[in-house]
Amino acid sequence: MKFEDIKKLVDLIDASKTLTELNLEQDEYKIVIKKEKEIVQAPITTTYEVPSAPVMPTQQIQPQTQPNTTSQAEAIESGKTINAPMVGTFYKSPSPESAPYVSVGDKVNADSTVCILEAMKLFNEIQAEISGVIVEILVEDGQMVEYGQPLFKVK
User: What biological-process terms (Gene Ontology) are attached (predicted)?
Assistant: First the structure.
């Protein structure tokens, strides 16, 4: 088989929307051409794995303590909070070894990344969407958060 013929086969596979693999075998050679399927997913810029602790059958999840709920209520009343855009697990840094994205006293603008929320093994960077100074972090690292839950109090 000539190189031009092989190139035509590659072009045929590349142009096809349904054909993803071609196997051609002759006495003296074997050709396998595969095209990876396109996977469309939301862009993710930073990912990391968080090791999960083994869960014992008798382990119970403790409800959120009252003082943190009070802080959330005060934050909502003040009007300037950064809220969770989805349900997920809150992470304050891009990896367990890294420094947090923001700390109390840090200035943020609308484009500042403030945390990561993990939902279904996808790690989503969350932007502040408002400008100001971080006054209080209202959730703990690794805590599950609800949609619309205040994460940061901003002044």
Answer: fatty acid biosynthetic process
pLDDT tens for the chain, residues 1 to 155:
777 877 887 787 777 777 777 777 888 778 887 777 655 555 655 556 666 666 555 555 555 544 455 555 554 555 689 999 999 999 999 888 999 999 999 999 989 999 999 988 889 999 998 999 999 999 999 999 999 999 999 98
For residue 64, give both structure tokens: 């959120």
Alpha-carbon gap, residue 77 to 133, rounded angstroms? 17
Nearest to 44 by CA among 136, 148, 129, 116: 116
Domains in the chain: ranges and CATH: 3-34 (no CATH), 67-154 (2.40.50.100)
Quickly tell me which residue has 């484009």 as its tokens: 111
Coil/strand/helix, residue 84: coil
* Torsion sign, CA atoms 93, 139, 75, 88: positive
Query: pTM for this one?
Result: 0.50
Name the nearest CA neighbour of 95 among 47, 143, 140.
47
